[in-house]
Amino acid sequence: MTLFVGRTAELRKSLDLLATSRDGVVQDVVGVHGIGKSFFLNMLAEEAAQLDRTQVFSVDMKRHGLGEGFHNDFGARASTAVLVETFNRSRELMKLFADPPYHEFDAFREAAQFQSRRADRVLYGNALNIGRRGRVEKAEITNVVEVGDEEVRRQIREAQNEIDDAFLRAWTEFTLNRRVLITVDTFELIADDEMGQWMTRLALRLPRTLISIARTPSDHTLGTYSAQFQQVPLDNFTPAEVSDYLARRFHPEALIPGIADVAHAFTDGHPGGVTLVADLIAEKGPSTLDPPALRRLLDRLPSDPEQRWAELVNMILEAVREPRLRQGVEAASITSTFDGKLLADLMRADGVDDGRNTGDIIGKLRGLRLLQQVPALSGEPSDRFRLHEFIRRSVSLRLRTHHRHERWLPLHRAAAEHYYTILRGWEDENYDSYGSWYRFEDPAWQEQKREWLFHSGMLSSRRAVTRARFTLVFLESVWWWASYLPFPLTRRLLEDWGRASEVWSGTRSTAPVSLERRKSDDQQLTDALTFLLDNYPVSYLKPASAPWDALRSKLLLIRRLCGLRGTTRQDTTPEEAEDMARTDALITVFLAHTRRFKDPSDPRAESYYEEAINRFEQLDDEWNTAWMYYEHADLALERHDLDQTMSRIAECGRRARALAERTEEWDHELLANAHRTQADVFWAREDLPRAAAAYGRAIAHAYWFQGEPHAPDEYTQQFYVEITTRAAERVADLADRPPLLRRFVDLLLEEVPRDKQSEVPDVTGLRTDLARVRSRLFPAGPTADEMRLEESPFMDDWNVLFEDAADPAAGLDVLVANSEVSP
């Protein structure tokens, strides 16, 4: 629908509110799919942009929603997970309004950085004041400061309130000489969780601001409707509005009287349906089509609305007399978005079309008002499109119901192959290249991987295989990132799984079932992975108080749901079998964690690690095998078995050296951890010279980790603080032994990246001030403003120091050789 009809009063009221209200006003624009919510927001934004001293922002919550696992999670009993996710997402959303860098938001940006660091300390421990988990401290285990869950929630709420107040102060100044409209589409994605509650609360505090949120109807209510919070229901067109729309659509050509009445009766005034009827009239001839003829055409269509719109689209395309257009619509209906290349691959899958000239098809479908352009990740226009949602859902349902095997499944197979081909470009040498793991951070890879999972999942009647392949990507994202810092991909994956599960459930038998039937296996998997994400400690600190037994139970359930220990794997392709074996190996790693972090002396932790090592070796996964030897060594350290620690670190070093020599890539994170573990052993044995050198090598690798293979991010920054704090603790421990302290620092700094021509800093008098020790001895890490910037003062210093960096292989040789030495 491109003509603005039937919403004039609502539009004028919204613009009047924007122009006159001193307080924040929220408009809750509610309507079913196809009613014109997005169109209303777009028209409101266009009109407001023409007003003097008015700023317009538009947000689509598809980009900022929280994902799965947070329904009805808000208010006084909001979970820790949703509070943390809301804090992170809301902060990023507020930053969008502060850029380009309006000077009014300078103080807000500083507050955001401060509160982010505060939240990190609450969630991950104060790295400057507490020791690392379970390290040997002269045969004593360092105590970990643990914060209760209720206290975490309180402090996260306080941090949220502080950043909200800072934003409000900035917004008040920002709007002194302007008014602001914010449109928020697909608000239903957050309406029933804490994010939706937060946005509503904040919106009502923003002066001279109108926020128009659009959502589909639900049982959820957002609050008391008052002068500041108003609901704007978008209803179907009246007969007069349908008549007005058709008259303007076909002006100056006149329709035969009575046509509008037939159109309204058939569609009940549904705006999207009226638009489709108008398209049919246009193709049949508006000046010659009379009401009885139109009625006969429409009477042929199903009464069910979901089926009706699909058949109406089909009738329009038949009238156009271009079979390729109908084929294009059906192909596009199984995708969330598509470009010309994907549409060509889908049409070729039918075996009828060669897939050429899809640009012409897209152009004609746009001319028929069936498509909308999709913005790129940057927000700019892209070459991707989607069918209007009410059309897409209807056409896809018709294909799935009536042409499941001959059309619907082949189209999903073609889409899966399309995305698989793209992903192969990312995933060659999948697991032996450290740099290749950074694809998990790339938004383009994330979207393509999610699409591949969705479409490939449609193809398998063996649901366990599908669950295993999905779980693999999920656990890899946790293993790679989300076990240390919040990683939005994990929530989005769960959201995708829920969306796909709804479609799969629609393909099954519709026979009545008992209300007492247990949850589906797919829903059980969703619940188990959500529990894992909500309860696995997101930090390098893994306190014994975490619910490790419950996590282990969920992991064992996930293993069973994925069919990893039964007969399912006998009927798989080699590629599927490898993915399932890798899923099983990762589950084993997390099972080891549930034993180790609750009680390092638990013998089951040992056997889980041994099993994980064997499984990764069978998969020829050298990178993860090396990591398992490091973690296995760390476990031995926590058990005070120093000889076993050194033996395992030696094997880790040998694996890392072989991998680095073959791939010419250095996993600085792994090497920093290995040298630090070795240093802890030397310290426990009071071999201070070797301990100093090993801590220095650990710091060097942690420093290089911040600039290779990409600019620093929040994790590399945190990791550097962790490693340097460990060395600073050792320096502080020697504060009362000046001769040993001087020698220890000299040997330490021989390995640390620094200007070797400069004097060795004086460390006397620093005592236990770890922050001063770190700043005096070690090169500075990046600031919050330098995250992900290849050009920054930090990277300037990094590049200078890296030019004279020692060969990492030398450190590996020492790692292996020293690990073979016992006192």
Structure description:
With 823 residues, the chain is mainly alpha-helical. The protein folds into 4 domains: 8-233, Rossmann fold, CATH 3.40.50; 239-404, no CATH class; 460-504 and 519-620, no CATH class; 634-819, no CATH class. Helices cover 59% and strands 6% of the residues. It is built from 32 helices and 9 strands. The strands form 3 sheets. A 5-stranded parallel beta sheet has the order 2-5-6-1-7, covered by helices on one side. A two-stranded antiparallel ribbon has the order 3-4. The chain has a two-stranded antiparallel sheet with strand order 8-9. The longest helix is centred in the first third of the chain and has 26 residues, at 149-174.
Summarize the model shown:
By secondary structure, the protein is mainly α.
Write the layout of secondary structure elements.
Elements: H1 8-20, E1 25-30, H2 37-49, E2 54-60, H3 80-98, H4 106-124, E3 136-137, E4 140-141, H5 149-174, E5 179-185, H6 194-203, E6 209-215, E7 229-233, H7 239-250, H8 259-267, H9 271-284, H10 291-299, H11 305-320, H12 323-333, H13 340-349, H14 358-367, E8 371-375, E9 381-387, H15 389-402, H16 404-427, H17 443-457, H18 463-482, H19 488-505, H20 521-535, H21 548-561, H22 574-596, H23 603-618, H24 622-638, H25 642-663, H26 668-684, H27 688-704, H28 714-733, H29 738-751, H30 770-777, H31 793-803, H32 808-819
Parallel strand pairs: 1-6, 1-7, 2-5, 5-6
Antiparallel strand pairs: 3-4, 8-9
